[in-house]
Amino acid sequence: METNADALEQERMDAVLRKRAKKLSREFLKESTTEENLLEIVEFRLGPERYGVASLHVGEVVPLREYAIVPCTPPFVAGIINLRGRIVPLVDLKFFFDIPATAISEETRVVVLRSGDMELGILADALVGIRTISLRNLHPPLPTMAGVRSAYLLGVEGEDIAILDGARILRDESLIVDEEV
Description:
Blueprint: H1 4-36, E1 38-46, E2 49-54, E3 58-63, E4 77-83, E5 86-91, E6 109-115, E7 118-124, E8 126-134, E9 138-139, H2 148-151, E10 153-157, E11 161-164, H3 166-171
Parallel strand pairs: 2-11, 5-7
Antiparallel strand pairs: 1-2, 1-8, 3-6, 4-5, 6-7, 9-10, 10-11
């Protein structure tokens, strides 16, 4: 037979367990909401400036070892690389962003963007790393950024990292060179 003391103890235990469950569910909801507002980016340098692109658009990042310059191409085409049997065009975004050209160095990397059949390499002066940013900290591009520069930007994180729109870069038909000489 259950006594009054046992019933009170059981009620107290149930109250403690309900309180713990409520706290855990709040923490779980907080974590899942936070995860939805995060973006993993690959961060790199173009000259003195820092840029990032969502990692979901990045197939890989490789050191620039050898590349071929292609004659009769627009100035933004740095050349092509052979990436394990695939020919990948190299685009120098510094041309669009009015960043002075820099020499190729040991730190130079190719950030390979991929989506379906489209593949494109962005020439980066150095890889900074991979990190996660909060979309809440992403501000729209400044109104002074016009033309292609603003078209390729999702926004600015903090005060110093411009986040590129990888999907838009891959879809931009003006980057496709399809001319016969």
